[in-house]
Design a protein that fits this description.
Blueprint (H helix, E strand, L loop, with lengths): L12 H9 L6 H17 L4 H11 L4 H11 L4 H23 L5 E5 L14 H10 L4 E5 L7 H9 L1
Parallel strand pairs: 1-2
């Protein structure tokens, strides 16, 4: 398990791309949101937007949320506001998913990949349902398995719980 909580601060789009590529940021929703903030940082720093776009895209070329987010934000006038709205929207969707999914959970839940707040904008997708069920007073036992390449499914899910 991680022994401490660390925050990574990025001040350039290249640093954001490095954080995505080096798996400091994990989870499809978190990757997309982070990439959007990378584009906002590029705009604030007056970096070349096309270069920032390409750099971020290359950071994890198979991540569909990354491509989706940076394509959406590319034409936006105020990239920071767009990134913040995208972030808020993800948390809102996760909370709705949690509220709708919580009644379906009872007893033990097996999860394979990290789908909690660390992998999303905040609340979590599948783990968000567990979180919501617990908030509703349900007695849930979570079994977290590993996920490769970094065993993040077991390590990060257990850390979050």
């Amino acid at each position: 398990l991680p022994k401490k909580t660390e925050y990574v601060y990025c001040s350039t789009s290249q640093q954001v791309a490095d954080a995505i590529r080096d798996m400091v940021v994990r989870g499809a929703p978190a990757i997309g949101i982070t990439a959007a903030y990378g584009m906002a940082i590029a705009q604030i720093n007056m970096e070349n937007i096309e270069d920032a776009y390409e750099c971020l895209l290359r950071s994890r070329p198979t991540a569909s949320n990354l491509r989706w987010a940076i394509e959406k934000i590319k034409g936006e006038e105020d990239k920071l506001s767009f990134a913040k709205n995208l972030h808020r929207e993800d948390i809102s969707l996760n909370r709705r998913l949690g509220e709708n999914g919580a009644p379906l959970l009872n007893g033990g839940v097996l999860t394979v990949c990290n789908t909690g707040a660390l992998a999303t904008g905040g609340h979590g997708t599948a783990l968000g349902m567990v979180r919501s069920a617990i908030e509703q007073g349900k007695d849930i036992r979570l079994y977290a398995c590993e996920t490769r390449p970094y065993n993040q499914g077991s390590r990060l899910t257990t850390y979050e719980c």
